[in-house]
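Worked example 4.2. Below are the chains of a multi-component assembly; read each line carefully before continuing.
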Amino acid sequence: MNPDLAAVLSALQANYGFRQLNVACEQPLLIDTERGIKRIRLWTDEALLHLHLKWRNHVKNEHFFVDRMYVTRAGLPSVRFGNFSMTCHDAPMEPLALNNNEQQWAAFLTDLSRTSRDQPVDESKTEMQIQVHTLFEQAKQMHELDPEIWGIVSACYSSACTRAAEADRLREQHQYRRSAFLLPADFSHDSCKALFDTLFFELGQSEPTDGCGVLARFVLTDALQAQRGQSMGKLLQELALKGFFDRENADLMLAEWFAPDEWIRLLQASLQGDVPVDRSSDVFRRVWDQKIKLIRLLENIGVQSGRAGGGAPSGSEGQQLDQSNTLLL
Amino acid sequence: MHQVDQKDSSWINRILFYYDLVPINLAAEGSLTRVDTYSGRFALKRKVLNDRQMRALQTVYALARRLVIDAVCPLPTKYGDLIIRDRETSYYLMPWFQETVDASNLPERYRHLFHKAAQLHRQTMERKQECAALYQAMVRVLSQRQMIWEHFLYTAEHHVYPSPFEQTVLQSAFIYLENMQRAREFFSRDKDEEGKSKEMRRALCHGRLTPLHLLIENERSCLTNFENSEDGFFIVETAALFEQAAVMLEQKQTDWRALYQSYQSACPLDEEERGFLQHFLLFPSAHANLLIRYSQSETVDEQWFVSRWTRLCETHQFMYTAITKMMKEEQKRKDELRKQKEAAEKKEADD
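Applying the procedure described above to all two chains together yields the following C-alpha cells:
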C-alpha cells in the first residue's frame, strides 16, 4: 500500500468515527466504510478550503443535498495532514441524467443562482470587439494561412464583430454588480447525482467561476451532442418557468453565446498551424451554428434580456444572425 | 404507535441521510417517529422552530456536551448541524428513551421533574443581578389578577341571586383578596432596607417545564424539549412549577413537603427567593383563569365549576401551608444554629 494512503487511512480512523475503512478507488480517493462510500479530498490551498467551507454553508438548503464536509470527532470540518488538509464527503454513485429530469435540474440551478453568490470573479476580460479586430488585423498581415480557413474567417468577420460588440454590450451592463452567480469551474453532468429522489450536488474543490458563463458553456457543449439537444431545450424552458432568467442571468448567458470564441480559437489555431484544417473548421461551424440556435431558443422562450431590440431576432441584428447562420449551414 | 407508510418514509430517509443512518423499522409515536437502525434506536422530531429556538437548542446542547447539565438533546448530524431545516419545518434526532414511567403517573413524574428542574437551575447558576424590573412585572401581573377578581366580584354582588359558583367564590374571596394585597406589598418593595435594588440569582430556565418534557428510564431521568429555554431569574420558573403542580396533582396523593425538599436539596433557595416563592403563590393564575372562563362561558355547568373551584382552593391551600411550614421550620433551624454559633463564640471569647 502506498505509504501516504496508509497515513490517510490512519488519520481518517483517528479523526472520524468509522470502524471499517477500505480503499475503493485511489484516483479519486474513495473509501468504503460501514456507513457507505466516502470521498476523501486533499487540499493544498488552505484559503481555497475555507472558501469552499463558506461556499457550502451559503449553498446548503432543503431542496438538494450538497457534498458538505463531515465533521471530525472534535467537531472540525477538516483534518490537518502534513502539508495538506483532508476532508471527508459523501460519494453517491448514481448520476442524475439531465434527460427526463430537466425540471429537477432547473429547480436546482434556480435555487443555486440565488444562494451561490459572492463578489464577481474573472471580470477583467479584454473587450471582445477589440480582441476580434486585433486578431483579424494580425492575421491579415500573415500570408501563410490556410485559404479555406481564411475564407471562413473573413466571411464571418463582420458577424463576429457584431456578436463581439453585442457580447461586450451585454456584459458591460452588469460590470459593476456587487454579487455574481458562481459555479465551480469544473461544473458538469457529473456534478449532480441522484439520492433519495433528491439532487446531490458535488461542489468539488475547484475555484468558483462566473456561473452564467459556466452554465452557458455547459448548455452549449451538451446541445452540440445530437441526442442531448432536445433535453437542453427543455432545460432552458424549465429554467425560464422557474424564474432563473432574471435580466442579469439572461444577459450574461446570451453574452457567452454571442461571444465569438470559436472564431477566435479557429483563427488562433490556424495562426499557430497546429490543428488539422478539416477538424477545426468543422468544429467552428457546429459551435457557431449551435450558439445562434441557443440565442434564438432563449429569445423564443420569451426571456427578457438587455439585447438591443430585445425579443425575437429581428431588425438588422436578427438579420445578421440569420445571414451568418445560413451562410454556414 | 403505528407503522410509517412509504410516502412518509421517503422524507425520513432523506433526513436520516444527514446522520448516515439506514432505518430498519419506523414507527410514529405521538409527535415523534421512532427509528430503529443497526446503530441503535432514535427519536426523530419534526417541529416548526424559529431562529431563537434554534439558538436555545444550541446553547443547551453545548452545556449537555460539556456535561454541565443532564439533558436529552439533538444529536449532531455528520456535518455538525443540530437541526435540519426543511422549508418551514425543522427536524432533529435524539437518542431513544424507553420510558418506564407512564405519562399518566403524574406524582412520579413531578417528583422527578422538581429534582431535575433544581439540578438544571443549580448547575447553570450565575451571579445575582438586579431584579427591580421583575418585581415591577410581578406587580403588573398582580394588578391584572386583582382586576379579574374585582370584576367577577362586582358582577356577582350585583346579582339578586348569585349562582352557586358565585356564592362559592364569594365565600373564599376575602382570603384571596387579602393574599393578593400581601403579595402586592412584597413585590412593591423592589429595594432593600438600605435603598439598594434587590438582587436575585439567574440561571438557565427550561421555559416549558411539564411532566411531558421529562424522559424517565428506570433510575435515569432527563429533561428534554429545550426550545424555549433562556437565561432568567430561575425562581419564577420554580414558582410557576409549584403552581402548575397544584393544578395537576390530586391533593391527597401529593407530598408537597417532599417535592419542596427535593427541589431545595438540589438547589437551595436563599431568603429572597423563598420570599418570592411564598408571595408568588399567593395569587395563583389557575383561580383567575377559572373566573374568566366562568364569565365567558355561555352555557355554564355550575356543578363542574363549583367542584373545580373547591378542588383548586383545597390543593392550593394544602400546598401553600406545607411549603410555608417547611420554610418556617428551615428558618427556625437556621436561627437555632446561628444562636448556638453565637453562644459558642461568646463562650470562647469569655474563656
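Take a moment to check your reading of the output against the notes. Residues 237 and 301 of chain A are 6 Å apart (CA to CA). The longest strand of chain A covers residues 36-43.
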